[in-house]
Design goal:
heterodimer, A: 225 residues, alpha/beta, five-stranded parallel sheet, 8 helices, 21% strand, B: 466 residues, five-stranded antiparallel sheet, 11 helices, 51% helix
Amino acid sequence: MRVLVVEDEVRLAENIACGLREGAGYAVDVAHDGEDAIHLCWTASYDLVVLDLMIPRLSGQEVVNQLRAARNRTPILVLTAMSETGKTIDLLNLGADDYMTKPFDLGELIARARALIRRGKGVGEPLLRFGSLNVHTGEQSVSHGSAKVELSPTEYRILEYLMFRPRVIVSKRELLEHLYDFTWEHHSNVVEAHVSNLRKKLRAVTDSEVLETLRGRGYRLVSAL
Amino acid sequence: MKGLRDRSLIRQTIGIVLAAQLTCALVLCGAALLYERHTRLRALDIRLQGRSDSLLGAIQDAEDPDDNVVVDPAELDLPGDDIYAVYNSGGRLVGSSRDASPLIIQRHSDGFREMKLGRRNYRVIQREAMRVIDRAENGGVGLKRPVTIVYASSVGKLWHEIFEAVRFYLLAIAFATGITVVAMALLLKRALFPLSELVAAAKQLSPPAMVFVAPASVMQMRELRPLAEVLTDAVGRLREAFAKEQRFVGDAAHELKTAIAVVRSSVQLLMLKPRTIEEYAGGLRRVLEDNSRVETLVTQMLQLASMEEASCANAPTTDLGHLTAVALEQLRPVAEERRIALNFTSSEHCKVRIMPERSLTLVSNLVMNAIQHSRSGQAVSISVCGNGPGNVALHVEDVGTGIDAGAIPHIFERFYREDRSRSRETGGTGLGLSICKSIVEAAGGSISVKSAPERGTRVTVTFIAA
């Protein structure tokens, strides 16, 4: 999953980005003002935007307006120091999906980010199921039946992304876009290597080919009977 | 309102009108009394004259050799308590009323006079008269008998009548006064209705809304219009001040909450998963840095608040050049770390009236700003000198990044930052220049900024020399 954090307070932006990377395993990009945020939203596809309201150049409210006007449906979590509930109600009406007031709890922010991403993909509960495969997004663990499947962080992120879209072909490019932020050096063969390792581990626990590779098109989770 | 006498406009006005009315009534009564007395006295005098004429008519020849005259009471029809006496030309009393007091009938000079007998007052007339008798017997000429008549009548009744007449006036006045009081109370209450409306409008004045709409009835009243206008004006200014305060509180809350959010998230990030000793140490260092930002913010906010409550009225005379040098010594390590030179020049005897600690804050805020907006290797020039007659100027000049023309009018606003994201990296709070402005203005000086992007900024502070 890839998240954009828009916050003008540099240290706070750093902390939120680190928290989302370490706590939820997301790829995170940071913008310090509204114009950068809009620009990044056009160039990359995000699964969530964490947006401070009082940012320079273009206010948080403007950012929400522009994204929604352009039919961008990325979930938006608003951060605000304002205590007036009127403003936050306006914002939710405008198209923001959730809000938190500063000072917030980093753990809660991560939990809400997870929930928003899940709901943005049409999934209601934190436990993703596909066949006999279970992915716990909260604790970032995978199990097959009662057996635990040990995955590396990147393998987990690939599986989690695919679990949100089972039976759908996900291109390598899409995987790259959603799993790596701009700070990463991404090479397509890195993804291939991780996918190959993941496939082997899944084959070992399920005794079947769960993760399919369609040459030149991408990857797909198929139902294990 | 304890200790204050409760006074009422209505009661006061009624009191004034009553006093005027009573004065009028008293004058009127006095005049009536005098006039009544005058006319009644005149009537009495005429009556006395008439009665003495009757008395004259009752004088008869005594038919004796001395040619005396006598008074024949049988022919008289006079009030019983009147006193009279008739003297002949020889001065002999020829007749008098019964029990006539000798004191009253004693002769003085002709004319009217007042006499007192016991507790009664008498009006007395004394006149010389000629009684012609036996006109028929003496060929129509008759015998002339000169007499002196003294006739007295009690005036006790007269005064009684006068008071009787004036009592009518008094009653009429008392009645009119009663009606006036009631009518005035009612009319004044109506006339003063705009005042109650003004009170009702003023009652709407409470801090969050601060709305005051002068009622139309008040604006129509010439005496109340200035009050309503002053109130409207004052409320407008109060509302502005309140809005400004609220904006400040809102901004302050945002800054504080953000600063606290940074500290909290730094700690929570550190606790997110088990880390190495080195990671913990680095994290703690960052938490400490974040915390010092909160400290700076709180310190500066408190500084600003104290600036607004304390005046500089009794500030001591201090040498601005010396204090600037002291402030620069404290800043030198920071400047050296960033490889920025501080050039300081000062002329002698630049005395101004300012609290020393405030001037230290002023200089260090201005110079820190200059350092933060300078690049490594550049220099910041600070000078203190006399500036025209009676003025002392402090210049702080850098050749750094400068300020956009559009931002210059706002840089003294609290929490204003020219470019938030960039300034936040430099650790600014957006309060430094507001504090400088407060310090300078409290000391009766002025502060101005000239700047061009990429060419530098020059801040000039002018004080009145002490």
